[in-house]
Every structure is written in structure tokens, then in C-alpha cells.
Give the backbone structure.
Amino acid sequence: MRRIRIATILLAVALVGGVPAGAARGAENDAALVIATGTGFVDRSGREVVLRGFNVSGEVKLAERGLLPFSDAADARRSALAMRDLAGANAVRFLLSWAAAEPTRGQVDAAYLRKVAEQAAVFADLGFSVFFDFHQDLYSRYLFNADSWYTGDGAPAWVVALGNYPRESCGICVQWGQNITQNAAVQSATYDFWHNAYGVQDAFLNQANSVLTYLRTHFTGAQFAHVVGFDPVNEPYAGRYDSGQDSRTWERDVLLPFYQRFRAVMDAAGWADRPAFVEPNMFWNGNLQQQAGGFLDSAGLGSRFVFNTHFYDQKAISGVFMWGKATDGHLSADFATIRQRAAALGVPAIVTEFGHPLTGYTSDKAPSVDKAMYQGLDSSVPGAQWWTRPADSGPVLSGTQWHWDLYSGRHAEAMNGNPNKVQVDGDAWNGEDFSSTALDGAGQPALRQDARLLDRVYPAAVAGHTRAFTYEDRSRDGSTTMTWNPVPATLPSLSTLVGANRYAVLVWSGRAGNTELQLPAGFQPTVVSDVSSTVDGRRLLLASAPGTHYAVVTDAGAPTAALLAAAKNELAAWVAAKFTA
């Protein structure tokens, strides 16, 4: 296996803000197709863009395929096509492993990087927006014993060997995340990383420089144009706090300086025009052990950063702190907070992980909890209030669901290298089962969740500025159709037109160009709008011009011209009443 020695000088150049490596290679063709600017993402023509898709994948946490998301590029292509065709995705968060990239200190594994580039390029070639993530959970698999109940991922074995950490133990833990606060080995190793003990943070940044440089120089210009940015580290947390420190000051004094160092590495590796997708303290992400954070002490992250958070409904997952199912507006306030933090920081927001277990004792909540998450991504306003205060919707959030694993339920992972503990079910990692896809009996990718939930209408590109959006997906919880946003009786013609069908509403301040709504597979759109529209495959194109515009799209069949005209009149009056010019 051929290896490349890391050039330490590259890091030195990065840290003093030197000229980005490879910046002259195909600069025009390499220009990003999706750009982070202000508080949103835009395309080259300046249209607002919404990124929706999945993580690929938890397979990166497993040794069975070399810490890669796929066996080969052919499986990557099969997965990407299924993600696009079954779920209407346009973006992917592509996980990377430090342990695989640098198994020996100071050397990166060229064979691993070649496979990463080949597999990620498949998504770029198919038109996906791609952003990368250095993934970790519980710091490293090498902290755990062969007979442990749990495992981790992230740092290589040589990093763990430097620390001489205590034998790991979580004590009485019913969920793997408890290791974060109860496992001394995990806490100490994580703490050491943030304090650069044994030079491990420097080593990580050196390795990152080589990985970013490799990807930048081994993609074609057209492929690199689809790369949106890079997530420096998954779900950061302190391990333990120094005396007098708390989650807020840890973000300010430890995490943000690390992100600035990583930003400099990106610049040196030729990624100066791509943002860093930076995550807050991981305890900010949920709704159970939430701590102060979200970069409260930063006046602004800067123009080359994205506020990148995760959200899991820990109360629902616990089975103790939430009884019953989610209902309309269950998570609207949580997602409104994400919008508010990004706006305060002056940067775009994206939710790069969300979801709910599909098996286990709280899996009955998954259809309603996941619907609540998508409702929160689409708007800050619950369905029951949406028609009365649509202008409070806020921006439509980009997001990538956890996760999309082609091998779900078909793994053969020797947990912590133990041949007597081969994991097969679900994600084959700490008892989790989140994948929205799996291979069917014929070996073809199929959805494990309701297609109406995953394959959605969303504003993929808006010529102008989105002022309000909602989508009633009518997804199902068993045999029950969940309707959280019925058209109100005050709009009788529109209510009759929509009936019990799916529908979306978009209100936007327009400028010249086409606004694009992504359509679900098989969706036969009936459109009520003040602008002309055409259908191009899975895209509804709405002609845009200066002024406030509206569109309702529904799969209601073929209504009469009189009903369409009456619905349009109602919508025009509603927009005039709810939105000022």
C-alpha cells in the first residue's frame, strides 16, 4: 500500500495565511456552483438555494469496508441514483475518517484517499452538492476494549497510544452517548485533543491539509465546482472543562480558535472560496441536555463560515421525557432558534444531522418526529398558525438527514475487532438503526420510511428572496395520514382544490430568472400562481420578475377552470393582506 508523507511545511504556510495551494488550477471551471453568502446559500446566478439530502454514511464508522461509505464507486453510484430518484435529494454530507486517512503518524494512506475521491466524485458527477465531514464519535474506536458494550470512531490507534488512558468503562449506561460524560478514557482523550497534548491537534491539522489538498487536486474542475465546503469535526465537545470554564466559554476560548486554525488549513489547501461548516458545542444541538452555546460570544463568524448544527429529539428518543407521538409544531421553536442564531452570526444555517431510530422501543415515534423535523426545516411557524402569520416562517433551512446506508441490516462488523461480536442488524454500530434506505429482496435500494415524508416539495432555487414556505406532505404514521396544515376554511376555493392532497405554498420577492420547486416522484402538479410555470422533469419552473409572487402546487388532479380562477383570487387577496411590498 503506497503512502504519501505529509509535508509539514504546508501547515506552516496555512497558519500564516499563505497562498492557497493549487489555486491556479482550472480556477474558472472550479468556481463553486453553490456559494455561502450573507445568511444563505446562492447559486452562480444569485438565486437562493436550499440543500436537502442525507449523510453517507454510518458505514464510515465500521471497519468492514475500510472506513469508507461504499465498497466501491459502483455502489456509490447506485446509492446516489437511488437517493436522487427515491428521495429527491440534491446534496450529500460525505463522511471521512482520520483513522483511515492517517493510520501511521505523519503518513496518509493514498489508497484510502483515492477511494474517497472516486466515491465522492460520483455524487458530483450526478449533480449533487457535496460537503465533507471529519467524523468522530466518542473520539476513537481504539479507546474501547474487545469485549466492550460500545465503540467509537475518529482518531487513529497511534493517537490513543500516546495518552496511556485508563481502561474505558461507561458504568451503567443504557445509551452510547452516556460515554461522553461517564467514560474517563473518552473524556481524557477528547480533552487532550483540544489542548493539543502530544501535538495531536497539530497532527490532525497536518493530516487535514493533506486530505484537502488531495481532494482538491484529484477532482476535475467540474467535480470540485460541486463541492460546497468542509465540516472540520463532527459533534465537538470538551471532554471535560477546565476550572471555571463552561460550555459557552469553551466555545469561545477553545473551539473557535480551532476553527480558525482549520480555516487557515483550508486556505492553504486551495479551499479559500469554500466555507467551513462549523458546529457548536454538541450539547447545544438537542432538547434534553442543552447547554449554553451556539457561539454566543462571537459577534460574527465571518463570511467564510456556515453555522452547522445537528438536531435530535432526545426527549422522544429517551422514551421517558416524551410520551406519545409528535404533533403539529412539536419542534418549530427548536428550529426557529437555529435560524435566530445563524441570523445573529450573519451566516447561513444548515442542519447536517437529524432523524429518529427506525427500530427499538421508541421507533413508533419516528414517523411523527421526523415529520416534525421536516416541518421545522421548512418553516418556523406551526401548521395551525401558518396561514395567519406566514411572514414569520423565516428562511427555509438546508438539511441532511442521518443517514443513507446502502448496507443497512446486512453488515458483518466485528465490534472493536472482536470476531465473537459480529454486528449485522441496523447500522451495526452501538445498536443504532437510522438508515432511510436498505436493499430489498432483489438487491435494489428501497425506502424504509414513507416516501411522502422523504420525497418532498422544496424550493431548490428561488430567483429573489423566499418570504414564506410550507409543505403539507400528508405522510403516514402506520395507516393514519398526518395532516398538520390544512388549508383554512377562510380560503374555501383553495381548500376545495387541494382537498386531501399534498400541497406546498411559496411566497417570494422576485427578480428576473426561474424559481425552481423540487417535485416528488410521480407528483402531477396543479399550479395556482400569479406567474407562468412549466414542468421540467422533477422541477417546477416559475417565471420570476421583480415584485411579490406566490404559487401553490398540489397533486389534486384536473380541477375546473372556474375553481382555479377562484382559488387564484383568494390567494391574491391573502398575499396582499399578509405581505407588504
